[in-house]
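Retro notes (design track)

What went well: tokenization of the new backbones is finally stable.
What didn't: we kept losing track of which sequence belonged to which structure.
Fix going forward: every design gets posted as structure first, then sequence, in one message. First example under the new rule, 206 residues:
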């Protein structure tokens, strides 16, 4: 598959041939969905907590005698039936992470890249560098290219000036190629890869 390369100024900068095994697959939504569920489950904090009856600071003494009161039979005041009592089957601190094989994760990334290439949401730029880290200047350049909602993937070390300039632009994310992931690819309308990112992805899946 051949992709055209452009510059941040909107000028043509040649083309690059990419592997059909990475960018030319027929997207499988089931594999992509599994990876997204894995990502979202893994990032849940799991710090929710409710006190059980054993953690309530109340006496465990029987409230009143078993018979002769005309009322219901009660023992401890820490039970869930009473206001301020412990919660039955409440949430506890735990990990929400689930397992997903590495090969499935890698395949999901390929299918996400292929999905962007298929729907026309994949762009390649020669480099993500700026002469001066000015948000206003970079915003105008991205708007000229039609990048209003985009994920920009650079090489192993993104340009500090570019990252600083893009940091305050709404709906624009910048990640190194090591941080590319299925969820962030799908949540942005356009995926923008630098030439260095394309080369790194080709080497990663070789």
């Amino acid at each position: 598959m051949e992709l055209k390369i452009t510059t941040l100024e909107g000028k043509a900068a040649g083309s690059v041939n990419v592997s059909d095994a990475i960018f030319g697959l027929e997207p499988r939504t089931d594999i992509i969905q599994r990876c997204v569920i894995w990502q979202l489950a893994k990032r849940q904090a799991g710090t929710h907590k409710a006190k059980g009856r054993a953690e309530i600071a109340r006496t465990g003494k029987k409230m009143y005698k078993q018979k002769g009161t005309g009322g219901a039979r009660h023992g401890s005041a820490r039970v869930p039936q009473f206001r301020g009592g412990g919660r039955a089957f409440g949430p506890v601190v735990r990990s929400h992470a689930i397992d997903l094989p590495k090969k499935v994760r890698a395949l999901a990334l390929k299918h996400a890249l292929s999905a962007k290439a298929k729907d026309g949401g994949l762009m390649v730029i020669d480099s993500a560098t700026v002469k001066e880290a000015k948000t206003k200047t970079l915003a105008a350049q991205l708007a000229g290219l039609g990048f209003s909602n985009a994920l920009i993937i650079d090489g192993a070390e993104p340009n500090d000036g570019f990252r600083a300039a893009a940091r305050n632009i709404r709906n624009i994310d910048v990640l190194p190629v090591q941080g590319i992931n299925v969820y962030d690819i799908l949540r942005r309308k356009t995926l923008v890869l630098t030439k260095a990112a394309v080369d790194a992805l080709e080497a990663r899946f070789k």
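Added context from the reviewer: The mean pLDDT is 94.
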